[in-house]
What we know:
alpha/beta, 35% helix
Amino acid sequence: MKLTIEVNNNKIYAEPGDTILDALNRHGISVPTLCHMKGFFPTGACRMCVVEVEGRRNLVTACSEPVVNGMKIKTHSSRVIESRKTIVELLLSNHPDDCLYCERNGSCELQKLSEDLHVRERRISGNKNKYKLDVSSPSLVRDPAKCILCGRCVRVCEEVQNVSSIGFVGRGNKTFIDTMFNHGLNLSTCVNCGQCIMVCPTGALKEQPHIAEIKKNLNDPSKVVIVQHAPAISVSLAEELGFKPGQNIVGLMNAALRRIGFDYVFDTSFSADLTIMEEATELIHRVTNGGVLPMITSCCPGWIKYAEEFSHDLLPNLSTCKSPQQMMGAIIKSYFAEIEGIPKENIYSVSIMPCTAKKFEQQREEMTQNGISDVDAVLTTRELARLIRLHGIDVHKLEPELADSPLGTRSSAGKIFGSSGGVMEAAIRSAHYFITGKEMVKFQVKAVRGLEGRKEATVQIGDLEVGVAVVSGLKNAEDLLQEIRNGRKDLHFIEIMACPGGCINGGGQPIGTTEEAVKARMATLYDIDEKDAIKVSHKNPYIIELYDKFLGKPLGHRSHDLLHTHYQKREVY
Length: 573
Ligand code: SF4
Ligand code: SF4
Ligand code: FES
């Protein structure tokens, strides 16, 4: 039965179990929040969402207070507004005054709140926070001085990622967020996923910037600067540049990258195709030769670090394939360098990734050949948008351009890698062909599509019944891994992505990414797949050429050297 409540003298309906905030949001009534996150149990910690409820002496927090039939609420009374304004003024009283230099200038929730609440004078002065920057991580920078203790990062790290590398330390006004023993993120359990950046309302968390290093190399005439862009970038960059969420602007992005000065533009979806050639072959090899099963994907460096820290008992289950970023890097500095006659030392290889963990992966020792890194620098989607703006490029005025050959041509199987379930679906398509010699009648494997944290299916490939599971978010992954440890035997192949929904919702994506935007990005990827002529990695003509001219065969000697890797147990605090 619906409940009736009165909000600002208007009657509205609420569902049983609603909080006041749920009911208000459903009716388009906006109340500011800070600590609240959709889908998380409310803590009522920040009190930004307070409202007046008739008959209650104190203001109540809308995010945690259940609706009661007949409740009378005022959302914007003078008392409420003054209370919210005081909270913001208190937060500002010890906040560093360096908005103009802050990464989040223009996208900061604290800035927006002080603007919305019309904070125009310093009524409260306090001691400014003095904490050291934590620059120890290859992926993230933490600035605790800008932290407003909303706790969103702590909750995401613990409740979504099962990592708990950061937490509240101290009491009262001495409370701050820190890693274990103040040793810095690099020595913590942090898997570099960047999901904490995505929820932080201020500039307290950001990616390790690589723009300056890339600019230096772009200005060095001795360097051939090559860029690759991941499958999820062309459908995520749009929002940063004034297009509608999910719009595929791959051609405009290629053109912009050339204007910035990159010598060659390649598409990581090509090396996603290459990953599928290797990974599908590895799966078949394991299934037919009694190898370790279930095989688990290895494209996500956040998941890989998690496995090395918390799931080392299952390291033999991980595919030995490098990620598409690293495969592309290795092929650029071997095959491409060879056919173009470019000394590999002169190549500076940049990737644009939806992900902060890719910055960590790129620096792993295993991702080098004779001391030369496969990939030299990684930009997030956000950093690419900054670089485009920095160069004064109006992408709306550009003509779309194609990526360069031969590493810029993809199948749509490589493109759907950007979404949770995409790697699995692409691998099933090629495994089907490798096992039966026939293409699938319908290429879609709908059971592994969508934003759910876990998807499972049994797929018939010839005589084989293949059990597959797709999980995103490391807490979901841990739950499934526990089932495997407890003896579950029906699964042959598991895809794990650290970020909920996969790379389209990665930690390097635009700040303020909404669920609707993630859905729009996913829909575009599958729409591209629907319309493309080449839907399987093994039909990509340049992949065929790469094997004919250079690699030999999947899992062959050269592939083993360039495209495969190993993992090891990590000791962490
Ligand atoms: S990057 Fe991921 S693992 Fe590291 S602190 Fe942030 S949420 Fe936790
Ligand atoms: S670092 Fe950001 S998300 Fe974490 S508590 Fe501080 S302000 Fe909130
Ligand atoms: S948003 Fe409701 S208490 Fe923080």
